[in-house]
Design goal:
This is DNA polymerase III subunit delta. The protein is α/β, with parallel strands linked by helices. The chain is built from 9 helices and 5 strands; from the N terminus they run E-H-H-E-H-E-H-E-H-E-H-H-H-H. The protein has a 5-stranded parallel sheet with strand order 2-3-4-1-5.
Length: 228
């Protein structure tokens, strides 16, 4: 599996990325920066001393991922600032992405997904860290603009995977916050109590998903409560 993690603001990158990686590894706590750099199953390619990531950098990185995970069910290969990848390096990486199994997950952080080859983008799920963006490309519709039947269809798709379930919850939370901010700017504060109640419903649903409760039932119950 490959994820393209798009971040627009540098300060958001590490915190949101750590939360995303925590969901993948199914950890109960947010991964610390220390664990992110020292965990035996998290391999980082981060080049700070030059402007590009070349094919030799990729080959050395690939050697770290030829073994099975040591501690977790999956190992993570994270390429930071993937916009630095040369064309040749991306083509070299593509073969690894195509051949990777469930025991290896690649995460490419990038400032703009269009800076990666279309062949790489087509093999990845695109995740956005910026709140103005929809969290994942497969979840583009505003959840609150859908009727309950359509919401349940989206829930059924997302509930098949724990990470997708959390990403859907994050999307819904961000949409709710954006809607509330617009109401505040327009001088409408009557919905403050409902907004806080909805946030509690969302947070409780997130906790249930992280506790391995039935994802579909949890998300459907959340959708019904948010409709009330």
């Amino acid at each position: 599996m490959t994820y393209i993690f798009v971040r627009k603001v540098e300060k958001e990158d590490k915190s949101y990325l750590r939360g995303f990686l925590s969901n993948i590894l199914k950890t109960k706590k947010l991964l610390s920066l220390e664990i992110l750099s020292s965990h035996p199953d998290i391999h980082n390619l981060e080049v700070t001393d030059k402007l590009s990531i070349g094919i030799e950098d990729i080959k050395l990185f690939q050697k770290k991922l030829i073994y099975k995970p040591f501690q977790e069910s999956s190992q993570l290969g994270i390429i930071h600032d993937s916009q630095k990848l040369t064309h040749e390096a991306q083509n070299s990486l593509l073969k690894s992405l195509e051949e990777s199994d469930d025991s290896t997950i690649y995460v490419l952080t990038v400032d703009n997904e269009k800076n990666l080859l279309p062949t790489i983008r087509s093999r990845a799920r695109i995740i956005y860290s910026h709140v103005e963006k929809i969290v994942e490309s497969s979840l583009q519709d505003n959840f609150f603009d859908l009727d309950l039947v359509s919401q349940f269809e989206k829930i059924q798709e997302a509930s098949e995977d724990r990470v997708d379930s959390i990403e859907l919850i994050n999307q819904i939370e961000n949409s709710l916050k954006s809607k509330f901010e617009i109401n505040i700017k327009n001088g409408n504060i009557d919905g403050s109590k409902k907004f806080l109640e909805d946030l509690k419903v969302i947070q409780k649903s997130r906790e249930k998903i992280n506790s391995n409760c039935n994802r579909r039932l949890t998300l459907e119950a959340m959708a019904i409560q948010l409709k009330e």
